[in-house]
Amino acid sequence: MTAIAEQLPVAEGVTGLRLVVRRFLRNKLAVIGLAVVVAFVLFCFVGPHLYHTDQTHTALDAVNQPPSARHPLGTDAVGHDELGRLMYGGGVSLLVGLAAGALATIIGMLWGAVAGYAGGWVDAAMMRVVDAGIAIPALFVLLVISAIVSPGIWGMVAILGLVSWLVPSRLIRAETLTLKNRDYVLTLRAIGGTHTRAISRHILPNSVSTIVVAATFQIADAIMLVAYVSYLGLGVRSPQTDWGGMLSAGLTAVYSGRWWLILPPGLAVILVVCAFNAIGDGLRDAFDVRGRS
């Protein structure tokens, strides 16, 4: 009986996945966003293996050089090749964004699912914690913590994840409140299935649309937040850098006409964030059953 209850949504899920993919591919803006993300991932993680630069030691004989054949995007104030630095900094930004977005989504997913499934005073207490957290601006908390602990890459991931899980938790809770009254969940509970089994085998798998969309937007938000913090000088420490740190370092140089120090990282942040938002919009529309045809 338990096996039968668990298999009820499976056939619908297989067909629904194909429909979601088909609808996503019809969204040209979402497909372009996916292509941009893939291109930047290859650029940042594969590019450094093809385009070798020294991003650790200074080169005082090559300071602030404009774009040339040797340095396609010029060099910065300490002689680092700007194209290589764009790859290296992009790798940090994408790594932090992806990891922090995933961490925030996982925390929010578990918190929201437990709160929504439990209901009653447990739900009320857990969601008051969320409401209190949302009332405090995430950027403010991030700046304070970054000023105190001076985080590295994984420290930044942990901080971003711990300040960004609140919104996903509310989305998952709302989905759980609907799903826990579905027939297959009620059947599982009637035949003695545990609460853990109900959440892990039915609630969360059937909330995958909300989880995936929330994760996509969380990644975009995390990339933007780490750019904010690094721009203000509280991000990852030298010799590590990210796109926000490159913007901060090149801000004064732009007044001297050295546009190559600020334009490439600025465009990279804008393109990647817009691309992830486009993917999120496309996934949301693809999962929307009211628009399926």
Distance between the termini: 34 Å
Within the CATH hierarchy, at the fold level, what is the topology? MetI-like fold
Number of strands: 0
> How would you describe the shape?
elongated
CATH class descriptor: Mainly Alpha
What is the N-to-C succession of helices and strands? HHHHHHHHHHHHHH
Query: Count of helical segments?
Result: 14
Q: What Rg do the Cα atoms give?
A: 23 Å
Quickly give the CATH architecture: Orthogonal Bundle
Return the structural class.
Answer: mainly alpha
CATH homologous superfamily grouping: MetI-like
What portion of residues is helical? Answer: over 70%
The description of the largest β-sheet is: none
**Low-confidence segments:** 1-11
Organism: Actinocatenispora comari
Family: Belongs to the binding-protein-dependent transport system permease family.
Keywords: Cell membrane, Membrane, Transmembrane, Transmembrane helix, Transport
GO cellular component, one term: plasma membrane
